[in-house]
Structures are given as structure tokens and as C-alpha cells.
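Good day; I would like, with your permission, to put a structural problem before you. A protein sequence and the C-alpha cells that stand for its backbone fold form the material at issue. Thank you for your consideration; the sequence and its C-alpha cells are set out here:
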Amino acid sequence: MAHGSFCHIELATTDIQKTRSFYETIFGWTFQDIPGFETYAMFQTPGGLGGGFDANPEGEKPSEVGPILHIEVDDIDATLAKITEAGGKTLQGKTKISDEFGYYALFLDNVGNRLGVWSKG
């Protein structure tokens, strides 16, 4: 990893198992349980970027404000349908950025975090 690269993304959750199931099913993320960290779940994306979901009751809560992380997908409409089926919500449907930069959409995950999806087509 190079200087200035993202090395760990941390998101809040209120339910580790519910969140884990959502991201495993929709995006193919893998999770690792760490003994002694019952309110924290480490994840890794297929592209290698990792992070964690923090369910500490005294920590941050899921939010639909702040920075937006975008997840690359093959088909935005199909992904938004899966998100809805898994308890999430579409905030903004597939929207063209430009011919060069593709499309994006915004959603809330099943615990209330706002994220985006992106695709070239």
C-alpha cells in the first residue's frame, strides 16, 4: 500500500450479524471474527480493501450524513434491488455522471449507513 492510500474503513452498526449478512450477500465481502472484540467485525472487500463495523453501544451510530463511500458493482439496478430485498433503501437511483465517468446511486444499508454504488455502464 502506498502513502496516502486508504488502509482501513470503519463504519458503525447496531447489529453485527445483520450487517455482516447484508454485505456478504450483496457485495461478497468476507468477515473475520476476532476473539475479544465482540462488538467489532473486520471485513475485506474482493479488491482487498478492508475495514470494520463497530457496534460499540457507546460509539458512533449509523448515519446518512458525512462522507460517502462508493462500492463498485457490475449492475447498479440489480444491486439496488438486492439492497432493498436485504432491508436497505435506495436514496437516489442510478444517475449518470458522464460518458467518461459512468453512473452512481446512493443507498442506506440495513442499519442506516449511507453509501453509494458506482459502475461504468
Summary: The chain has one domain: 9-56+64-119. The domain at 9-56+64-119 is CATH 3.10.180.10 (2,3-Dihydroxybiphenyl 1,2-Dioxygenase; domain 1). The helical segments are 16-27, 76-85. The chain is about 20% helix and 35% strand.
